Structure formats: C-alpha cells, structure tokens
C-alpha cells in the first residue's frame, strides 16, 4: 500500500513537473522566485534591525514578481490568478509611490 502511494505520488510529480513542462512554466518559476524574494529581503532587514522593517526592495520585488505572475496568469488564462495578481500589482505600485513620495519629503532641501 505504501509503495502504491509512493508510486502514485511519483507519477503525479513527474506528470506535473516533467511531462507537462512548457517554456512558459519557466517564466512562472522565475516570477514566483522573484515574488518570494520580497519576503526574504523583508525578513533579513527586520532581523538586522531587530524590529519589523519594510525595505524599498520589498516593493520592487513585489512589483517585478507580480507583473511576471500577472503575465503568466494571462497566458494560462486563469481568471482567479489574473484578478489576484492584477489588483496586487496596483497596490504594490501605489505603496511604492507613497514610499518614494515620503522619502522625497524627508530629504533635506
């Protein structure tokens, strides 16, 4: 029984990651790695500061990964993914705008 389950899981993973591989999936992987990096840079910055920090790189990774994931979602024609990433990119860009605006106000003249 355990061997059957192991073989079924192995066959499933092979089908998903090898047999059905398309080059657009590579874009999806790159996009997901970029999107994940936003959490990595935020975590590292917070650990270094000893408190929650939101570095500007977080927003750049959010926008870059979000745009690539949005493009991937459009290509695979997934309406849920399209709506989620499309709205998210707008929010990330707006937050980056606020961050850059506030940094500009804080800079000495």
Structure characterization notes:
This protein has 109 residues and is mainly alpha-helical. It contains four helices and no strands. It has helices at residues 2-19, 23-49, 56-76, 79-106. The N and C termini lie far apart (72 Å).
Could you report the average pLDDT, rounded to the nearest whole number? 91
Number of strands: 0
* Dominant shape: elongated
Q: Which series of helices and strands comes N to C?
A: HHHH
Lay out the secondary structure:
Blueprint lengths: L1 H18 L3 H27 L6 H21 L2 H28 L3
Helix pairs in contact: 2-3, 3-4
Task: Please supply descriptive tags for the structure shown above.
mainly alpha; 109 residues; 4 helices; single chain; 86% helix
Entry summary:
The protein has 109 residues and is mostly helical.
